[in-house]
Structures are given as C-alpha cells and as structure tokens.
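hiii, so i know i said id send this last week but things got crazy w the move. better late than never?? heres the sequnce for the chain we talked about at the cafe, plus the structure i predicted for it. fair warning i was half asleep when i ran it
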Amino acid sequence: MKNKVQLITYVDRLSGAGLPALGRLLKGPLAGVFGGVHLLPFYHPIDGVDAGFDPIDHAQVDPRLGDWEDVRALGAEFDVMADLIVNHVSCESAAFKDFQARGDDSPYAGMFLTLDKVFPAGASEAELAKIYRPRPGLPFSAMTLKHGEKRLLWTTFTSQQIDIDVCDPKGAAYLDGILLRFQAAGVCVLRLDAAGYAIKKSGTSCFMIPETHAYIALLRRRSRELGMEVLVEIHSYYLEQIEIAKKVDWVYDFALPPLVLHALYTAEAGPLKAWLEISPRNAITVLDTHDGIGVIDVGADAASSRPGLLSAAAIDALVETIHERSKGQSRQATGAAASNLDLYQVNCTYYDALGRDDRDYLLARVIQFFAPGIPQVYYMGLLAEPNDMARLEETGVGRDINRHAFTAQELKDALVRPVVRALLGLIGFRNAHPAFAGTFALLPCGKTELALGWKKKDEFAVLQVGLVSRRTQIEFSSPSGPRTLALDEITGPFTL
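okay and structure toks below
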C-alpha cells in the first residue's frame, strides 16, 4: 500500500453513479489527492439489510455499479482495497437457499454454522453467557427448513446474515473463490471484515480466541500467496490490537478517534500521548468510517478488568460530550434509539462530534496525519459533512446518519468549502513530504500540548499543538530551507 492518504467510500454515494464515475472523480476534481481507495461493499446487492455487508453473491459486482473490469481499471491507477466478508453470507444466497430446501442433503450443508456444530452436547447457560456479543441478545436464529426440520443457525449480526463455518471445506472453498476473484480484478489489499467472530469454540468467548488468531494468520498467508496485503478490522482491547498487528500487514488504529476527541474536549494530552508511544506502526489511521465512533477500543478489558486507555468515567464524559456537541443528534442514532444496536459505537459524523468547528476539525485531521501509520479519510469526513438526519429519519438505521448520498451539485458545492479546501491542502502535505517515510517520535512538551515529529535523514516535519490555546503550527524541511506554517495558513494546496 502506498504511503499516501487513502479514501474510504461507497461507490455510489460520493460519485453519484458507479465505478467509472468514481474513477473520473479521483482523476478529475480529486486528482493527486489519494494514493488508494477502499471500496466499501460493491457486491450484489449493495442495498441489503447491512449496506452491502450481507452479500447474496460476494463474487458479483452489483450491476448498478459496473463489473469486475471496472474494478480492474480503477486498480490500474490506485491501490484498491476490498472487503472479504469472512463471517457470514446473506440468507438469500444461492448456497443457503439450497441448504434450506435440502437440509443435510445439500452439498452446502457444511458451509453454515449451526448451534450443534459448536455445542454437540448442548450448551449450558454459563457457556452461552460467555459468548462475546457486539449487539444485544444471543447469536442464534431459529429457522425451519423446507421439510419442517428446525435448526438453530449462528447469526452474529442479524438473522439475515448467516454465519459461515470457515473450517468446513465448503466454507473454506467459498472464501478462497472470492480471494481468487479479487486477485483477478487487481485488488491489492484485503480488509477482513468481522474476522474476529469467524471461529467459534465451546467454552470460550468465540471472539478473538487463539484459534481466531491462527485463522487470520492462515488467511494472511493465502492472501500473500496471491499478491495481496491484509488489513484486519477488529474492535477490541488495545493490547490485543498490538498483538494482532504483529501477525498481519495492517491493523486499524481504532483507539485514535476517541483519544483525539478526548484531547480536544478536555485539553488533556496524556492518554493520547501514552497511546502514540506504543501504537502499532503498521496501522491504518482513521477518525471516521462507515460505522460509528468506537469506544471499546479505549476501554478496560471486560475479560480481565485490565485498565483501558481511558477510565470508565472519561469514556462516559466523552460520549456525553459527543451528544452535546452534536446537539443531541448522535443520541438519536445510537443504542436503543436506532435499529442497529452496536454496543461499542456512537453514531455521529466526526465533524458534528466537534460541533462543526472548522478549526477543531482541521486540528483533529492534522493530528491523524502525523500519527504513526497510513491515514484513511472517509468520504463524509473528506467533505466535513454534518449528520444526515433526513436519512436517519427515513431508514431508522443509526449508522445512516453518517452515510449521506451526495448529488452531483452537493459534491461540487462541498469541494469548494474553505474547510474542505484546507483539508485537501493537509492531505497534499502528508502525501508529499518525505519525512513521513521515516520514523515517528513524540517530542517533549507540556501536559496540555502535543509535539509529534517525523524524520528521515535531513528531512523533518513537526506538529506542535497547544490544546488550550489551539495554537497549531507545522515546522518542516523544504528545498528552500526550514519553514513554519500555522494551521490556519493552510487554505488549499501548497508546494513544499
């Protein structure tokens, strides 16, 4: 993956059309801005119960967006990342329909995970209570097959998303077929979606157990054989993220978004500094994604009570401040107020989480760009977009507050907003300065200050932030000698 800022987007919500239109946008108005693009699920269909993360056919591009040749054309000019949805398929998939109709006589019967596969002698209350859940309730759905046989299927997320037995030959062949399809289309990075739930074992939490780590390592070996890098998407305790990072190419820095908010809300730099000292260097940094703002990543370890990066009181205050800065909109989209009850996320755009304050928003972004790793910017964040309350009201799905579908005119208008122009300038600086190919260091500073530095031989870039005053400047090497820029001086593209 190129050491340049990456874009995360749904194919149709930013371009307003399909893959060719997105390519024209990246080569036109956004020319030179991004080194790669994470295409959120573009499989058939893109508008299921989970916005494409419940594919009926993972190996087919939704024809409304284009085809695999369009993916290949995009990959010829940009690093293309695609989601391998490891844990489940749609209940509308051909394989599951065949299993429903034929039961154990179906050649696909082994592909789907039933309760008795994991608990052949039955499950005790204690064993069921031990299963880690991202949402309320147990991870099972009762289903009646065509001939009246009743089965309990594992459904970690929704009853429409049927969990795969990845250890069964049929399940393994299904996923390998997708890998081969990606390779043929020029995909160079895989994002392993929900891989932490892929392995279920009785007597365990069924989440990120040792067997899961081994399975992720197996997927990485196979992907590398096919010439693809692997990014693992796991929301978990921060020390576990550090361990995961040792076994894959890339891991998300999901602790960064809440820690940056905490620093800006409280002017307390300590927790953010403590994390940046130890955070994985092979990280993909984000502030926002297609999901909510996670908090589990900075919390205590529920299994062992080891302390988190933030205390429980600090996390409560963080969540309440998000609700306050968004004028209560995030509260309407989070938890029991929304149909997708993710227990560890607050649904809100990052721009609204900072009260639509352009200065604070750009400050958050420049901290992200100086943090260790390669930055990704979500399409809503690129355009500093506020919450989409109309879409939330229309769908009742909390995460839709952060998934606006732009018209061509809205996109054109957004790209000329001063905050967006300044963000494009910061992206250009992060892409162009050679120091970011060197080493990162936290530099000495006060308790309410940040000093983040990068150095490669004689090249350097240093970010200095006063969290109380909000005074922010970048010192950097350039062909004409050392330079210093205040954050508010960056109003658009500039040259080194």
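btw The chain has three domains: 6-86+167-436, 94-163, 437-489. thought thatd interest u
miss u guys!!
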